[in-house]
Specification:
The protein has one domain: Rossmann fold (3-Layer(aba) Sandwich), CATH 3.40.50.2020. 37% of the residues lie in helices and 27% in strands. By secondary structure, it is an alpha/beta fold. It is globular, with a radius of gyration of 15 Å. Strand 7, helix 6 and strand 8 form a beta-alpha-beta unit. The strands form 2 sheets. A 6-stranded mixed β-sheet has the order 5-4-3-6-7-8, sandwiched between helices.
């Protein structure tokens, strides 16, 4: 399953080489672009099936922008509701950071890529503040640069579908 997903990610150009600044602020010689890759429905469906088969949850959640299409796909695949976590609070309307009912629910957070884990931890904190029970984050690709350890220190297990070294050896 992992080998096929690695092949599919490469085929859909989810990894590029060059000089990039990551969301974490770090510089990198490669960039993992899951957002663009999952614009191809077969890849998005494959990822959703992998997650749905391997995880139990009441609600699936994604952080805007990259996690939202993944959460929607998993929701459609599983038949369970999804929630969206805004990247920042709005200054109008309801001003909710978490859109969707997560209170008292077992929530699975989905990330497209994890590096340091800062974005995932933000999502976990926002979900917990909204009353969710969350102890796992699924990421399509873990860059293996500290996210797992940082999340573990906060009582959360990182479950990567693919690790960066698996993409790099192709």
């Amino acid at each position: 399953m992992v080998k096929r997903l690695v092949r599919d990610l490469i085929a859909h150009r989810a990894i590029e080489f060059g000089s990039f600044r990551l969301a974490s602020g770090a510089e990198s010689s490669y960039y993992i672009d899951i957002k663009s890759a999952v614009t191809h429905p077969p890849l998005l469906v494959s990822i959703a099936k992998n997650i749905t088969k391997s995880c139990e949850f009441d609600v699936v959640a994604g952080i805007a922008l990259g996690g939202v299409p993944l959460a929607v796909a998993v929701s459609l695949q599983s038949g369970k509701p999804y929630a969206i976590i805004r990247s920042a609070e709005k200054d109008h309307g309801k001003k909710n950071i978490v859109i969707g009912n997560v209170s008292g629910m077992s929530v699975l957070l989905i990330e497209d890529v994890t590096t340091s884990g800062g974005s995932a931890l933000y999502g976990v904190k926002m979900l917990r503040e909204a009353g969710a029970h969350i102890d796992r984050v699924v990421t399509v690709v873990d860059r293996e640069q500290g996210a797992s350890e940082m999340l573990e220190r906060n009582g959360v297990r990182l479950l990567p579908l693919v690790k960066a070294h698996e993409l790099m050896k192709r």
